[in-house]
Design goal:
There is one protein chain. The chain is mainly α and 336 residues long. The protein is built from 11 helices and 2 strands. The chain is globular and about 60 Å long.
């Protein structure tokens, strides 16, 4: 199959967004992060809009893109090779980072590797299911009504889950799999959507009309989340039904972005190809680089927005460069 450059570039954009997301948390009141600014004047109360909107879709899109490539890998490699490669590429980083974070914190901690751990679990489940079920060969088209139905199903499920496990409540499933129940239904559903998108060629066949409409709805819902205030009627409506609201945002914005990148960025680009090769490793190492910069610059007092952007940009560049250097070590490319 020909290279799908736009999916590579979209993963780069999402990786950068993850770094910026984590860089913003220390300047958000109530944000949970290993570092918190020592200077109250650097806090940015409004930054929660940025964090909330990101959390609504960006990890779901990661799972969708990852799910898209799973059937192709399984079909070409077979069960044994597929699982062996996944254990190397996903399992080794999870084991190493979890061990390091556990030693540093004194308690079991997987940190940002929850995503890689969750992806590994879903890949294993996919391999088990494929032992019992043959690949789907029926026709199924991506439609607006179908996307709306899936979004509402995820939303209602998420809304019910949040009644017993609110957002940002993390638990250990089976004692070693870290999940956030409020969002995990979305992640699993988006992974499945990715698998189906490959089988039914949804991304390739998505019409410009459907793609543009999806993007418009997704952007409108994202803007609606930014327009929330602390006491307004709109904020109250969105807050009470946020599980449904963010699911609609997630599904439509994800497919809208996939369409946008397919139309505008599906061509070779030397710099972006280089970034794509480092994106996975940058996701893994960015936590340590970002925290190092945040602690090192704590005594540099400046407007919060300036400091946030400065740290995020520097951490992003260093994360990609560090990954490039690590990949020069023999054998590391098999993992990163």
């Amino acid at each position: 199959m020909k290279r799908l450059y736009y999916l590579d570039y979209l993963k780069v954009a999402l990786t950068v967004l993850v770094v910026f997301h984590h860089a913003a948390i220390p300047y958000s009141p109530g944000g949970e992060w290993a570092y918190t600014t020592s200077h109250p004047e650097e806090m940015m109360p409004w930054i929660w809009h940025f964090l909330s909107t990101n959390a609504s879709f960006f990890m779901g899109l990661f799972f969708l893109i990852s799910g898209y490539f799973v059937p192709r890998s399984f079909d070409s490699q077979g069960t044994v090779t597929f699982l062996r490669k996944k254990l190397i590429r996903l399992g080794i980083p999870v084991l190493l980072i979890t061990t390091l974070l556990t030693v540093l914190t004194g308690q079991l901690e997987v940190g940002h590797m929850w995503y890689v751990e969750g992806l590994l679990v879903l890949c294993i489940i996919y391999a088990i299911v494929r032992q019992m079920v043959k690949p789907i060969k029926a026709e199924c088209h991506l439609t607006f009504e179908g996307m709306l139905t899936v979004a509402f199903l995820i939303g209602f499920g998420g809304h019910l889950i949040r009644q017993v496990s609110p957002q940002d409540n993390w638990i250990w499933l089976l004692g070693f799999i870290k999940i956030e129940p409020a969002h995990y239904l979305q992640y699993v559903a988006m992974f499945v959507m990715g698998v189906l998108a490959y089988r039914f060629q949804w991304l390739e066949k998505m019409s410009n009309t459907l793609g543009a409409v999806s993007l418009a709805i997704g952007v409108a819902l994202a803007l609606g989340n930014y327009l929330r205030d602390d006491g307004g009627a709109w904020n109250l409506i969105v807050y009470q039904l946020f599980g449904i609201y963010e699911s609609l945002l997630c599904v439509f914005l994800c497919f809208g972005l996939l369409w946008l990148f397919r139309v505008c960025a599906n061509r070779p680009n030397t710099f972006m190809n280089w970034c794509a090769r480092q994106a996975y490793g940058a996701y893994i190492v960015h936590l340590f680089i970002l925290l190092g910069i945040q602690f090192a610059t704590d005594q540099m007092v400046m407007p919060g927005i300036v400091k946030f952007f400065m740290i995020a940009i520097v951490a992003t560049v260093l994360s990609f460069l560090t990954t490039y250097l690590l990949r020069l070590i023999p054998g590391v490319k098999k993992v990163l």
